[in-house]
Amino acid sequence: MSLLAAYSAGGALVWIVWVVAGFACIASGVAVVSFSNPFFAALALIGNLGSLAVLYLLLSAEFVAAAQVLVYAGAVMVMFLFVIAYVGPRTEAPWSGGPRWQTVAAVLAAAAIFLEIIVVIGLKAGGKLAHSDHVNATFGSPGWIGRLFLTDHLLAFEITSIVLLIAAVGGVILGSHTRRSQQEEASTPA
Amino acid sequence: MLGPSTAWYLGVSAFLFGTGALGVLIRRNPLIVLLSLEIMLNGANLALIAFSRHASNGAGQIFALAVMAVAASEVCVGLGLVVAIHRRRLALDVDRFSELRG
After folding, report:
1. Distance from the CA of B102 to the CA of which of A60, A93, A124, B64 falls in 20 to 30 A?
2. CA of A178, closest CA in chain B: separation in Å?
3. Residue B27 phi/psi, 5° resolution?
């Protein structure tokens, strides 16, 4: 196979992977919003995160893809599933809540956001968004990300750690179950 | 050029953001509202990473990782709230939590 044929075959392969991952991404996103059972919605979100990780890999963001699978699809979604199991599976029809005009207005607002972004991309940036062929071999690798975090973006790194610490403290305070709060709950009418 | 251009990724990202916004607006279960919020954050992340690849600049990927950390914090606090609400035997319905409305 000549070099040119190999190049175009590689391009076709990238397109096929992109179409499959993008379709899975969109379908599972719609599934999260339209499933009535939160347990199935959470499982669909795991599929969404996995197919997004494939898209990140196509964009040569290897470390972000790995972190996406480990942190999001692993840790965060397991916590979600635990809480859904604790609260109990209560199902609700997706279109049930609120008056009818609210639902219609919500659909209109979401469609407006989507169309606005698409129109802006098409009008202003359509011709300029062909990405450059060559990036460094280290682009997106863990070592490169780590060096960026410890040199150019050190402040963001430290502030992120503080945000996570504060969120953990807040989660513990919200979840702590003292004797006093038990008494308050007992006196609260159900 | 190999594969789809950045505009295709941005289209998927816009669709994810719109879907998540729809879920946040129409769903009543706070757990599913949180899940839809995650979809919105991930749509923004996809746009950041697509632009990072487009400009061959690492700042977008760093920003995406920061967004993931913020999303983890938000899930931590949000799920804590859901568990606290459940403990008080209140209904898990965002329309009922209107006491703080001005």
Report:
1. A93
2. 12
3. -80, 150
